[in-house]
Amino acid sequence: MEEIEASHSRLETLIRVAEAKDLRFVHHSWARTLATEPYLRDAGVSVSISAKSFERFLDERLPEMVTIISCNPEDPDQIFGYITGERGCIHFLYVKEYIRQEGIASDLIKRFSAKTYSYASQTAKRLARKYKLQFNPFHLWGIFLDDSH
User: Which of 45, 91, 106, 122 gives a 20 to 30 Å CA spacing to 129?
Assistant: First the structure.
């Protein structure tokens, strides 16, 4: 396990690089969250078709992404949340509901050193304003545009 360092959140956590065994949780929680996003329903997208397509996409792309885990320091298999992305772009940030508002998301964002984000939930937009992140949905699909603008 590659430990990055102790967290600065209000709750004592350990920040570490994800291992292969963590990716199942990341995959499942990301796909489940996508399936319940109101903006997809509002856009008239079939959630069942979208979720299946997205799961195939995650099967391919997730192992190539950088994922950082926030976990219990006494039981590193107990994941509190994670951030995943690539090339300075946050693709997804997740914190378990029962432990939100403890500074975990902020801690993960600070450690990821991103300039952009590709997932447009209301929470992502709020955090992007706070951390001055630019929205770029194309990064998730492997299309990297010039970030200098």
Answer: 45
Classify 69 as helix, strand or coil. strand
pLDDT, one tens digit per residue, over 123-135 is 888 888 898 998 8
For helices 122-131 and 104-112, give the axis angle rounded to 10 degrees: 60
Q: What tokens appear for 54 in the block?
A: 């997205």
Average pLDDT, the chain: 79
> Domain range spanning residue 80?
3-113
Judge whether 108 and 68 are in contact, CB under 8 Å. Answer: yes
Domain count, the chain: 1
- Quickly state the pLDDT bin for 70 (edges 50, 70, 90): very high
- In this structure, is residue 104 part of a structural domain? yes
Q: What is the CATH classification number for the domain harbouring 41? A: 3.40.630.30
* 137 occurs within a structural domain: no
